[in-house]
Amino acid sequence: MRVGVGMQQSFDLLFASSNLHKFQEAKKILEHFGIKLGFYKCNLEEIQSNSLKEIANHKSKQAFQNCKKPVIVEDDGLFIESLGGFPGPYSSYVFKTIGNKGILNLLKQKRKAKFVSVISFCDKRNIISFESYLDGTISKKIIGKGWGYDPIFIPFKSKLTFAKLKDKNEISHRYKALKKFSNWYFDK
Ligand code: ITT
Prior knowledge:
The chain has helices at about 20-30, 50-65, 90-95, 100-105, 170, 175-185; strands at about 5, 10, 15, 35-40, 70-80, 85-90, 110-120, 125-140, 155. It is α+β, with helices and mostly antiparallel strands. Strands 3, 4, 5, 6, 7, 8 and 9 form a 7-stranded mixed beta sheet that branches. A two-stranded antiparallel ribbon has the order 1-2. The two termini are about 15 Å apart. Inosine 5'-triphosphate (ITT) binds near residues 19, 74, 75 and 147. Inosine 5'-triphosphate binds near residues 75, 148 and 149.
């Protein structure tokens, strides 16, 4: 079922977030799976938790209460192995405070990391989440001009950072989690 907003726009479900980059990537990815995404720009309250799934489910419930339409939210984290998984669930805060330069300064030798995405869907009947991750390494310097951690994250098997990759949306943590979500969405 498509829900109409305003005169011309229609979408299958909403993506609630304060981050336009995340929405734009999710929209492209879901278009590919035949799902039309609308943007519900908002600042949702984030609970403090070590679990991205708990944070995401809390955000999607809140979003559904506000917009009353089928909605997904996404919670991501960059987990750097030699830093005990830091910044993990605090990735948004750490990006705003120390940023990519701060992360590079913290790292000496071991640079293994993974990007995790949790997509949480909420409607009248369901609250369900889908998690995926992408292994990679942290570059030695900032490479490229992408948003967030894109200029320092090099996915496994690649020589380029996310910021330099043309096919980010076909391999990313976000793509993998949204693929799981859309398989469920069409079966439900
Ligand atoms: P919400 O309003 O949707 O919560 P947010 O920006 O706070 O937006 P998250 O907590 O999910 O989003 O994401 C944590 C941070 O991780 C995010 O602010 C970015 O800095 C970074 N990030 C997530 N996915 C990324 C990607 O694909 N490329 C680069 N950085 C990414």
